[in-house]
Each structure stands twice: as C-alpha cells, then as structure tokens.
User: What shape does this take?
Amino acid sequence: MNKPSAPKTNQAWGGRFNEPVDDFVARFTASVNFDQRFYRQDIQGSIAHAKMLCEAEVLTADERDQIINGLQEIEAQIESGEFVWSIPLEDVHMNIEAALTEKIGIVGKKLHTGRSRNDQVATDIKLWLRDQIDQIGPILTRLQRGMIELAASEANTIMPGFTHLQTAQPVTFGHHLLAWNEMLERDYSRLQDCRQRLNQSPLGAAALAGTTYPINRQYTAEALSFDKPTENSLDSVSDRDFAIEFCAFSSILMTHLSRMSEELVLWTSAQFQFINLPDRFCTGSSIMPQKKNPDVPELVRGKTGRVNGHLIALLTLMKSQPLAYNKDNQEDKEPLFDAVDTVSDCLRAFADMIPAIESRKDEMYEAARRGFSTATDLADYLVGKGIAFRDSHEIVGKSVAYGIAENKDLSEMSLEELQQFSSEISADVFDVLTLEGSVAARDHLGGTAPAQVKAAAQRALAKLDIR
Ligand code: ARG
Assistant: This one.
C-alpha cells in the first residue's frame, strides 16, 4: 500500500520530510519577522540572478521577463503593505519565491536555479549594509560640518583644558571641538573601509561549493555594483566579517559620542556652566521644577552599551564556526540591524544638537583663570631666562602653593610677590601669565592658538568637501 504523502509544511524543502515541522520549531527557526527588512535587496539580487541565467541560456528571455515583472509586482505589494508574510515559509527569500510562483506559475520555480539561500542571504545583507553605510556617511559628514563650523566661530573662546579632569592649561573651545572632529574623521574612514572590503559579490557560491550551471559571476557582481565576485565559495557563504567590522566601527563611534556626551553633561551642569543646550534637546523633572536635564547626550552615552553588546554578539556568533554556512548565521541580523538603527539615530541627534550649543564664554574664561592654568607658561618663561626646566618647575610649584594660601591666581600676584620665588622674574612675565598670551603662544600645527584653530578648521572643512 502506498503511504499517503506527508503534508508539506514548506514547498521549498518539504520533499524529504515525513511529518510537518513542529509549530514551535517553525516559529523558532523562522527569520521572516526580521529579515523581511531587506526584501528590496533580495529582489534586486534575484533580478540580477535571473538576467544572468538568461545570458547563460538557462532561462529564456520570456521566462526572465516574467520573473522580473513578477518580482517587481511583489515589491510593490510589499511596499503598499498588501503582502502577507508567512512564518511557515521561514524567511524573506522563501516568502518572495513562493509569492512569485503563485503569481507566474512554474517559471517562478526556475529562479532558484544555480543559487542557494546561502549565497542569496550573504548577498542580501551585503547589499543592505552597503545601502545603510551610504546613508550613515552623509549624517556623519553633516555632524562634522556643524562641529567644525562651531569650532571656527569659537576659535578665540578660552576655556580650561584638563588632564585627570583637573585644570591643566588654557585651550580654546574651538580647539576642543576640533579634537572631537578628529575622532569622527577616523570613524568616517573606518566606515568607508568597511564598505570597500564588503563590496564583493558572494552570488554564485550557491550552497557552499559553487554550481554546475554555466553561471557568470562577473555579470551579477557588476549588475549589483559590487567591485568583483568573491574568490572562494566556502568563504563566501560563511563570511560575516563585514557585519563584525560595521559593529566595530559602530562601537568605536559610539565610544567617541559617549565621551562627547559625558563632556556635554558636565559642561551643562551648575558646577561647570560652560555651555547651554537649547531646551529642545533637554527634558524636565516631574518632581524638581528647576531641573533641565541633558537627556540627549545622556541617552547617547547609554546607547553605547547596546552597540558594544552587538559587537560582542557577532564576534561570539562567529567564534569557532566550522565552514561553511551554519544556521547560527541567521543570528547575525538583529544585532546588525539594531547597531545600524542606533548609530543612525545617535548621529542624527548629534548632528542636530552640536550646532545649537551656546558657549558661556565668561564662565569658561573664569574657570581657566581659577586653576593656575598658566603655571607651565611661567615655567617656560623662566627657562627662557636661563633656568633649567626642573628648577623652574620647582619655583613655579612654590608660587602656586603661595597662590593657594593667598587665594590668588599667578596673574593676580604683584611683581614683588612673584620675585620672592625667583629674581629672574621681571615685568614682562605678565605677557605670558594671561590666558590670551598662553593660548596664542602655542602657535604651531596642532596647537591651540586661535590662528592655528582657524586654519585647522579650514583644512577640516576642505576634507569634507571632497568626500
Ligand atoms: N534565513 C536564513 C539566514 O538568515 C537564510 C539561509 C538559510 N540557509 C539554510 N541552509 N538554512 O541565514
């Protein structure tokens, strides 16, 4: 007696199964709830594949056109919200393929010739991530432009520079902002680096070993704007370095944004009062009426944690995985998606907020004046008078101790008071003890002198213009 054919839960691979997949297992193994996010790239890849199959005479021109038209209709249905995603169809790939077959019949079943979901999904994520990178790059550039323009307008604003969060030497606010920009400049180049290395087409690797059809990998690579096809089929379907690299870029970027956030939080506090953040970037307290909290920088600082988590998730996902594709790889998507979303949102928030910073110049100046920030200048002055640096360091240390006891900054002491510590000190000392003199004297490439800051800002803007 013939066994009744087993109910097929999945038309793409149900053939060898004797019982349907358990309901929970179907839900547990499905990715369609999240991988539908790259339906557009899936269709783009399928169209390129169908065109290539026609060039290779595996499909007729009529079959190719039916497939392309069908896929375009499906794309329109997805976009209008009409398309019904099915969990038993597991993922975006099989949902779209099943819809195509339903639409155009047997020809739809030919699309998967010479292809596997393994090279298909690798292609899709690369295309998707490349699109995301191309959207994130310009937001980063917008942030940098706003930051550099603010730096140029704050080139003369004096604030304390810190080491160990203790007042160290006076710097200009513009110089501080340009330090931030350097971090972002490296982030931008890391992002482009990631894009450049990911831009090779895995399509044609099929399941893992390649395919027996006369495919043209160069053709699909070009059709999808990849620089070239990948070299090795096993590596093509198992490589997720690009996702790790993107998350590494994201983690470093978020680390930078968190450092900036921390400074913004400090600077807006009643203890520092270096800047104002406009109300639209802050929120109040439901109990303390006086509060204006710097929520945006705080939240960006906090979101660094989840992005770092995604990097670790992907590194751990790939650790010890044998070649080639393993179902583990389905777990690459959610961390990557969330890293992309978080980074995009944080960059947008920063790009909007940074140009709106209002500096409180008097408070910054006062803070720089209070902390003996020109002590190094006095030491350098004494070296100029022929005293060895270690000795001048000692002399200035004693002057500072006196200043602390007398509650006087160096620039507030009289010439006689200063001369108690060295007879080499004369009236010209006051040129170097002023904050303006101190910053202006650091007049070399990378220094904090206003003239250098203005020139550095111009160079930084010019780099943005050639992106
Ligand atoms: N949904 C799968 C993923 O995201 C697609 C590839 C499935 N391949 C397979 N051999 N089961 O990785």
